[in-house]
C-alpha cells in the first residue's frame, strides 16, 4: 500500500525540509513517521470523520511533532529531562 499518498502534502513537505533520512510505514490504524529510524509521530491511516478544522488540527499537530523531534535529532534543541 502506498502510504505516502495518504499523507497531507504539508506533512511530506516538512519531512523533506528536515534534511534527514525519513520513511513512513503503515500500521494497523496509523501511518508511522520515522526519521533516521526513530519514531517521531503517527497520523491516522483512514480519513478522520471529524470537521475540516479538526482534520487540519491533526495535520498541524503532526507537523509540530516532526519539527520538534527533527530538532532533537540534529541537536538544535536541548532536551529537558
Describe what you observe in this structure.
- Helix 1 runs parallel beside helix 2.
- 40% of the residues lie in helices and 22% in strands.
- Strand 2 and strand 3 form a beta hairpin.
- It has a 3-stranded antiparallel β-sheet, with helices on one face.
- It is built from 2 helices and 3 strands.
- The radius of gyration is 13 Å and the shape is globular.
- It has one domain.
Spatial gap, N to C terminus: 38 Å
Q: Strand pairing plus helix content: what structural class?
A: alpha+beta
- SSE succession: HEEEH
Radius of gyration, rounded?
Answer: 13 Å
List the helices and strands and how they pair.
Blueprint: H1 9-17, E1 22-26, E2 30-35, E3 38-44, H2 52-74
Antiparallel strand pairs: 1-2, 2-3
Helix pairs in contact: 1-2
Can you tag this structure with a few keywords?
81 residues; globular; alpha+beta; 40% helix; 3-stranded antiparallel beta sheet
Briefly say what this structure is.
This protein is of the alpha+beta class and 81 residues long. The protein is built from two helices and three strands; from the N terminus they run αβββα.
Amino acid at each position: 500500500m502506498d502510504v505516502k499518498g495518504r499523507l497531507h502534502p504539508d506533512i511530506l513537505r516538512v519531512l523533506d525540509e528536515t534534511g534527514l533520512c525519513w520513511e513512513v510505514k503503515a500500521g494497523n490504524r496509523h501511518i508511522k513517521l520515522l526519521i533516521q529510524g526513530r519514531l517521531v509521530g503517527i497520523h491516522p491511516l483512514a480519513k478522520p470523520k471529524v470537521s475540516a478544522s479538526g482534520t487540519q488540527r491533526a495535520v498541524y499537530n503532526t507537523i509540530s511533532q516532526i519539527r520538534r523531534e527533527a530538532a532533537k535529532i540534529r541537536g538544535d534543541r536541548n532536551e529537558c529531562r
